[in-house]
Specification:
disordered N terminus, six-stranded antiparallel sheet, seven-stranded antiparallel sheet, rod-shaped, alpha+beta
């Protein structure tokens, strides 16, 4: 019995010891679990720093993204402004080109109008000095036929019986105006329509009336002539005139003090020729010749017309 009891106590004691071991083992396992579940302070700090770094990194990326988007928007705005400015500049270049072309057109038109207007204005200025010219029968060659009012002349077939006066031209078909001018300016017009030959201009009072002389300033006359459909200025050696149209009426202007004699086509208001730099002495008289009849080919008269 006692041995049984003793064994029983042993068993109990043994059981008690196993329970204690299990309890201890359980406590140890719990401690290990607690150690694993609860990290150290350094680990917590490191994780905290990593978290903060991640937050700051994400924040930086967001900030960079916002800045990028803003810069991109600014770039797009600048690009749009650049395109708009480029279009404006292109439009200005086009407008400038158009304006330059318009200016060139206006300049061309101005030059053309000026070339047309200047002779017209110049002729109008000359016409302010118009004088009443009448042919002087005492100076007319006997073959010349003058109208009763002294405004027309033509060539006759036979010479008239006229007094042989010192002032009369007896060798050439010339006649002078009655009034001479020794100063100032004067202007007159003569119709030459339908004629194939004529002489017009002015002559010195001292021009030779009886002998031979040349049609030149050196012999005292400043004239323009028509011969064989060719217009010439008798300036010593004759000067051929290139006229666009055949004059129907010729204007003659003299500025005594300036020493010039000018000729104009009245209808087209164009300048024909000017003698310049002349030195006049004594009186100057209007000078006329209807030219030879040329077998009936030049029958039209010269007519002094009102201005």
């Amino acid at each position: 019995m006692d041995s049984i009891y003793e064994n029983t106590d042993f068993v109990l004691s043994t059981v008690s010891s196993d329970e204690k071991c299990s309890q201890l083992k359980g406590n140890f396992t719990e401690l290990e679990s607690k150690k694993k579940v609860s990290p150290s302070k350094w680990t917590k700090g490191l994780l905290t720093l990593l978290g903060l770094a991640l937050v700051f990194a994400l924040g930086g990326l967001c900030a960079l993204w916002m800045i990028y988007n803003n810069k991109l928007a600014d770039f797009e705005t600048l690009n749009e402004q650049h395109i708009m400015v480029s279009k404006q500049l292109a439009a200005q270049v086009i407008n400038s080109t158009v304006m330059i072309r318009e200016q060139e057109g206006l300049r061309t038109n101005y030059t053309s109008v000026r070339e047309q207007l200047l002779p017209y204005v110049e002729l109008k200025r000359m016409q302010q000095y118009a004088v009443d010219v009448t042919l002087d029968p005492d100076t007319a060659n006997p073959y010349l036929i003058l109208s009763g009012d002294g405004k027309q002349l033509k060539v006759g077939d036979v010479a008239q019986k006229l007094p042989d006066k010192p002032e009369r031209f007896d060798r050439y078909l010339y006649v002078l105006g009655k009034e001479g001018f020794s100063s100032g300016r004067f202007y007159f017009e003569v119709q030459v329509k339908g004629k194939t030959s004529w002489d017009l201009g002015v002559a010195r009072e001292s021009i030779d009336r009886k002998g031979e002389f040349t049609l030149s300033p050196s012999d005292g006359c400043w004239i323009v002539i028509l011969r064989n459909n060719e217009y010439k200025a008798c300036a010593g050696p004759p000067v051929s005139l290139s006229l666009r149209v055949k004059p129907q009426r010729v204007g003659v202007f003299v500025d005594y003090e300036e020493g010039l004699v000018s000729f104009y086509d009245v209808k087209s208001s164009s300048h024909m020729y000017t003698f310049t730099g002349q030195s006049f002495t004594g009186k100057l008289y209007p000078y006329f010749s209807p030219g030879l009849n040329n077998k009936g080919e030049n029958p039209a008269p010269l007519i002094i017309t009102p201005v």
